[in-house]
């Protein structure tokens, strides 16, 4: 693997409400924690930037069914459901990116209405590795926006899980990311000692 390009890790929305027991639980969503923790350690040990995105919804937003959306209430600011999974590594070097704050915007992507692209450029990042929840929504939109922003992207197939509102949504999302130019990789195959 080439180390010529500066890399960053983007951990997407590994929050309590998206994990088993949460209000918008992704099946086996907690299974992304271990592979992502391994990568978080590796990136931090090399001095490469790590970002954690989080849904940070206002109490009233067009996302929620009660206000015309399709989703149950989830990841409301300053609630337990919006907190990161308790086993996900917390480190002061990790930058937290809050999204979904604008009650009139989708906010699926970690780049939507945030400073993420600017922060990556300031650190001269050329390639981002992306994993988390959920494959068919926030991961997909983050990957696509990263590609549109000119970054190379490795999407971590074994470190993401899909909502699958429709049974094949996760598979379709992976194909969409691949077709747009993302490399779909297995964390276990790309992890470095």
Give a brief outline of the structure.
The chain is of the alpha/beta class and 193 residues long.
Keywords:
six-stranded parallel β-sheet, alpha/beta, 193 residues, 5 helices, globular, Rossmann fold
What is the 3D form? globular
Q: Assign the CATH topology.
A: Rossmann fold
Contiguous uncertain segments of 5+ residues: none
Give the spatial strand order of the biggest sheet.
Answer: 3-2-1-4-5-6
Radius of gyration: 15 Å
Count of individual beta strands: 6
User: Can you tell me the number of structural domains?
Assistant: 1
Q: Determine the strand fraction and express it as a percent band.
A: 15-25%
Instruction: Please provide the ordered H/E string of secondary-structure elements.
Output: EHEEHEHEHEH
Q: What's the assembly state of these chains?
A: single chain
Q: Write out the CATH superfamily name.
A: Isochorismatase-like
| Straight-line distance between termini | 12 Å
Task: Estimate the mean pLDDT confidence.
Answer: 93
Q: What structural class do the secondary elements suggest?
A: alpha/beta
CATH class: Alpha Beta
Query: Major sheet: size, sense and barrel closure?
Result: 6 strands, parallel
């Amino acid at each position: 693997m080439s180390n010529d390009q500066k890399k960053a890790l983007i951990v997407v929305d590994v929050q309590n409400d998206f994990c088993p027991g949460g209000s918008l639980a992704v099946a086996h969503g907690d299974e992304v924690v271990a592979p992502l923790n391994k990568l978080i350690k590796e990136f931090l040990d090399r001095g490469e930037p790590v970002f954690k995105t989080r849904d940070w919804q206002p109490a009233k937003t067009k996302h929620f069914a009660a206000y015309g959306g399709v989703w149950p209430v989830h990841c409301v600011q300053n609630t337990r459901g919006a907190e990161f999974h308790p086993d996900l590594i917390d480190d002061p070097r990790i930058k937290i990116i809050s999204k979904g704050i604008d009650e009139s915007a989708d906010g699926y992507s970690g780049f939507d209405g945030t400073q993420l692209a600017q922060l990556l450029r300031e650190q001269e990042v050329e390639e981002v590795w992306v994993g988390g929840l959920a494959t068919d929504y926030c991961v997909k939109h983050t990957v696509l926006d990263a590609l549109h922003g000119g970054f190379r992207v490795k999407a971590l197939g074994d470190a993401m899980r899909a909502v699958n509102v429709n049974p094949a949504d996760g598979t379709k999302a992976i194909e969409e990311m691949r077709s747009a130019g993302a490399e779909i990789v297995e964390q276990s195959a790309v992890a470095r000692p």
